[in-house]
Amino acid sequence: QRASMAEELSNERRRARDYMIQLKLGFEMTDGAQRQLLDDAQGMKRELEIELDGTKRELTMKSHEAKSLRSSLVEIQANPGDGMKVASYSKTSIHKKFSRIGKKKKGPTSISSPNHRAASTGASGAGGGSLSGNNNELTMLSSLSSMPEASPLRIPYEMRSTASDVSSADNNHYQVEKLLQLHSETAKLRHEFEHLRRFTADELRSLPQHAEEWSNQAGKALLTSQKEVADLRDRLARESAMRRKLLNEVQDLRGNVRVYCRPRPFRSERNNNCNSSIISVPSHETIILHRENVMGDTVTPMSFEFDRVFYPDSAQKDIYSEMEELVLGALDGFNICLMAYGQTGSGKTHTLIGEYSISREEEDSGTSLTTDIGEHGIHFHAAQQLFTIAAHRSGRYQDTFSMTIVEVHNEKLTDLVAGTDMADECGNVQGRVPSSKDRKSGRSKKGYPDDEHSFKSGVSQSGDSKISKGSNKHKLEIRTNYDGDTIVQGLHSIPVTTFEDVLRVWGESMTQRASRLTEQGKEIEQYESTCHTIATINVVSTNIATGVGTVGRVQFVDLAGSDLVPRKQGSKNTKNSSILSSDGILSGVGNNNEWKFTNKSLGTLHEVVNARCQFMRSVPYRNSTLTHLLRDSLDADTKVLLMVCVSSDEQDLQETATALRFASRMRRVTIGKATKHSVSLA
């Protein structure tokens, strides 16, 4: 059934992806066609404008030419004798020229023929009279045609003048015809220009309308595509939520540990010789460790698969949204354990708790420390949502919350809440161990009423109702009660009713620890990297109508940094490290060196995880305070989530590979199906 649902989901995603691709292609084709039409219209507009400018220039040239021809024609018609004067001047100049030529010749040269004299007489007479008549022209032309062929010098000047007049008349006639032809062409061009102007004006007026139509069509297509995309996103979100829900149900039935991975963003200031991250996230379930970026192409990348892999730039709210349903199971009576694992500086505390800073203030009485909590992590987001849901359902359920913070450093337990103002005001000591009389009388067989009674009435370990001011130091011991539950005897529990109470508890606890470390002369950051912090929110929910309640718990475990050092050859711990060596978790990346943890409790945690994976009958929980304290979370009915935080820097390659190997092994641990813890408080 799971495979069929997964196949159906993949088919739906594939169909949605194909539909989106078709919509995108259709929109691109429509948009391209509309853009092409608009570009064509603009190109046509530019061509028409260019053609219009050319036509205007041509019309201007033709108009100037026509004006010049018209002025020439008017001058010719107004002064008809100018042509004859020019001809006479030409004749006289030619006669003088040829007379000079005749005088320069050798020997006497005379022109004494009667025809020549007649021509001379006619020429002299013509100089004083008018030669505009048609009879004189015909007579000169006939005499010119009847003359024998001779040298051009013998042609009468009168005949040449008459011929020039005739050619001038023909030229005038040609110019008139040309003027008429230009006039007709100008009229034709004006008609074409007017037609072109009207066509261009119509096109320009229609362009806004077409553009508006095209924009409306594009807008409709875009709105349709956006609606389709929104619908597909909603469907994808619903399917993803359903898939996560089914996956959580399957994991609840199997009882496996959920493993999430969050890489830290790449820090260029720590990678002078490397320009790329050694971590890549190709999908939400896969992370790849690129060893070849540091060790060369001789090695291959390492790939790991987890339940969820976040991107390096994921926000805190995105991280919490993936485990929101798991955390809210505490309201239904389930035990939840969230552990953050990774090397120092990989972002464990930032993910689980958030950002906080400790500032110093100088006062008259001395130096005082204050804690400012900035960006909230998973712990604060979970607490805020638990209080919000409790307020919404206050009419049907009565929800009470209490909080404890314990620290493990060098195999010693420290109560961070003890000694704070809130512990002095309303703190209770939890972990009451029943006496032999209680066991014989069968009192509190289920075991939960003792705890709930201590939550409600504040009964302490020895029966005292409250803790007096100053008596905040109690010996902390890990005990197992008669129900098999692991408890910390002497640990302070602070009732919290609002989210501000949670912030106050953390602020006072961090300030008190900073003051203690300052007095001891220890570095706060170095101390925090070597200690384990466990914050627990206990939830008791009671149905007002039926009186039936549930007891749940959300445990936040900020483990110490999983820093490594090389293991010495031939060490005495070879027998204890045989399991780890055969497992390969601590094996070197690209070398044969074996590594070990600087924190021994993390080595014990690895041994416990390896023993659980191999289903060993004996699991070394008591070899470390940390594993002894987390026994219920690793062995009982608890929903466990491991958040492994890794670094993307090249110098942290070994620690990153070790953390990813441990997370892969942790994913194989089967804890068992979690049960709902119900109790009647009526």
List the helices and strands and how they pair.
Elements: H1 2-78, H2 82-103, H3 114-128, H4 134-146, H5 157-254, E1 258-263, E2 279-280, E3 286-289, H6 292-295, E4 302-305, E5 308-309, H7 316-327, E6 335-342, H8 348-352, E7 354-362, E8 367-376, H9 378-392, E9 397-409, E10 412-415, H10 421-426, E11 428-430, H11 436-441, H12 448-457, E12 477-480, E13 486-489, E14 491-496, H13 499-520, H14 524-529, E15 532-543, E16 548-558, E17 564-566, H15 578-583, E18 595-597, H16 600-613, H17 625-629, H18 631-635, E19 638-646, H19 653-666, E20 678-680
Parallel strand pairs: 1-5, 1-19, 6-16, 6-19
Antiparallel strand pairs: 2-3, 3-4, 7-8, 9-10, 9-14, 9-15, 11-14, 12-13, 15-16, 16-20, 17-18
Helix pairs in contact: 1-5, 2-5, 4-5
Characteristics:
682 residues; alpha+beta; 11-stranded mixed β-sheet; 3-stranded antiparallel β-sheet; 20 strands; elongated
Explain what this protein looks like in three dimensions.
52% of the residues lie in helices and 18% in strands. Strands 1, 5, 6, 9, 10, 11, 14, 15, 16, 19 and 20 form an 11-stranded mixed sheet that branches. Helix 1 packs antiparallel against helix 5 and helix 2 crosses helix 5. It is of the alpha+beta class and 682 residues long. It has 19 helices and 20 strands. The chain has helices spanning 2-78, 82-103, 114-128, 134-146, 157-254, 292-295, 316-327, 348-352, 378-392, 421-426, 436-441, 448-457, 499-520, 524-529, 578-583, 600-613, 625-629, 631-635, 653-666, and strands spanning 258-263, 279-280, 286-289, 302-305, 308-309, 335-342, 354-362, 367-376, 397-409, 412-415, 428-430, 477-480, 486-489, 491-496, 532-543, 548-558, 564-566, 595-597, 638-646, 678-680.
